[in-house]
Amino acid sequence: MGIDFLAYGYAALVATGGVVGYAKAGSTASLGVGILFGAVLAYGAYQSSQNPSNYLVGLGASALLAGVMGNRYYHSGKFMPAGMIAAVSTAMVLRYVVRSFAIKQQ
């Protein structure tokens, strides 16, 4: 399969979002959660790069982020950053679900 560049890019996006949240607003919560989720997503990307059947860590973290950030977007109405992360996280959840069906078909 090779390296899952898309999943690594998503992990970097989430971690970078935490750093930007800290830089712009001084939010240590954004920094901590962004780095934490970025690391978990990077681990999930590593796992799925090693074996495409190991997508559960990435799927779980993406689903959790999609739910939390989707809720924040719903209540705030602000696309940046909550709406963007919710949209990208939802896309990654769909990608992992499609991947799981493709793996099961083999």
From TrEMBL:
Q: Which residues cross the membrane?
A: 5-23, 29-46, 79-98
Q: Which Gene3D superfamilies match?
A: Transmembrane protein 14-like (1.10.10.1740)
InterPro entries found in the cross-reference section: TMEM14, TMEM14_sf
Q: Specify one Pfam family.
A: Tmemb_14
- Positions the record marks as coiled coil are none
The protein's location, in the record's own words, is:
Membrane
Query: Key word Isomerase present in the record?
Result: no
Point out the signal peptide segment.
Answer: none
| UniProt keyword annotations, A-Z | Membrane, Transmembrane, Transmembrane helix
Main subcellular location: membrane
Q: Looking at the record's lineage, which domain of life comes first?
A: Eukaryota
Query: Record keywords: S-adenosyl-L-methionine included?
Result: no
Family membership: Belongs to the TMEM14 family.
What is the recorded name of this protein? Transmembrane protein 14C
